[in-house]
What does this fold into?
Amino acid sequence: MAANKKLLMLPGDGIGPEVLRQVRRVIEWMDRRRTVTFDVEEGLVGGAALDAHGVAVTDETIAKALAVDAVLFGAVGGPKWEGKGFDKRPEAGLLRLRKDLGLFANLRPATVFAPLADASSLKPELVRGLDIMIVRELTGGVYFGEPRGITDIGNGERRGVNTQVYTTSEIRRVAAVAFELARKRKNRLCSVEKHNVMESGLLWKEEVTALHKESFADVELSHMLADTCAMQLVRNPGQFDVIVTDNLFGDILSDEAAMLTGSLGMLPSASLGAVDASGRRKALYEPIHGSAPDIAGRDLANPIAMLLSFAMCLRYSFDMQEDAALVEKAVEAVLAGGMRTADIMQPGMAKVSTSVMGDSILRALDKLAA
Ligand code: NAD
It folds into this structure.
């Protein structure tokens, strides 16, 4: 029997608790059916933590997040907490988790499930079978670089400054994550920057090239300018396997790629940190959608993005490839059977609630594992 896997669940606000409840059911199914057991702790984050403790995440929750193998995060935010200062915003909880766990690599898959190929804004033949992984650098670049700020420069003029800055080690550690991922996929990595107009982009390209030569020569590496990549993602997205890029370009390109797949309710993500002395990589898994206050508490949310985030957790934190694939196949089977939550509803399909979608996925797991 394998050692227990330690998970911290942070449901957060709005639909966060509703979608994470469906993950809890899959974990219970796995506890019963597979040779793995999960130790699951739960904590507050976002608005829920602000209400209970006056901060968006407590030191105790951060300590727990540092101690477990992986964090499963729902979503935070809502009208109740809007208009407060930066520290009193629900999002401050997520930002602190990212910072304290040192989560520098953000993995955003853009995968199109065959039954949903028609939901994309692109022609189905361009997106059918699409399976791209975007690795975005998450803790450096222009969102954090100094100097920054707005200054008065006299004569009614003001000046806004942000600084795009990357160091060798920041580039290499995220590129290494991307090369390793490529090895487990189709073995192709495209590194994206703007070396034609930015020194930080030139350094990015040089360091990725050097790392490739030193440690990952078996992976097929290409380079692309960020503007070309934005164009190619809508022109011929099937050409990409893994893309690695900086914080700013990654922010934009991963949202663009996400939209190729149809719905927010289908998109998972992982944020990974460095490997520690015990060989464990800090990790947080979350759907890319927010707390959806407009549908919260009504059993309407699509739990699939959260469930696929859990599948990523199985794959990247626990190396449980088969179990991860099982969850993904169960999702695909349920979609192929015509079940749809409201956000992905299509003509002729059966509209179901969050909990019925969860029931159906458990039944599909039973069938697949039989
Ligand atoms: P959102 O992602 O919460 O919702 C956008 C739209 O998509 C809404 O119409 C919503 O009903 C729908 N939607 C989202 N997820 C869905 C799901 N799983 N199933 C069905 N429909 C779904 O974005 P928003 O409305 O811009 O923000 C709402 C709140 O969430 C804000 O407070 C925002 O700050 C916060 N937010 C949090 C995160 C996070 O926790 N990581 C991310 C984005 C936004």
User: Anything to note?
Assistant: Residues 15, 19, 75-78, 94, 264-265, 286, 289-295, 301-302, 305, 341, 343 surround nicotinamide-adenine-dinucleotide (CB under 6 Å). The longest strand covers residues 5-12. The radius of gyration is 21 Å. Residues 285 and 313 are 6 Å apart (CA to CA).
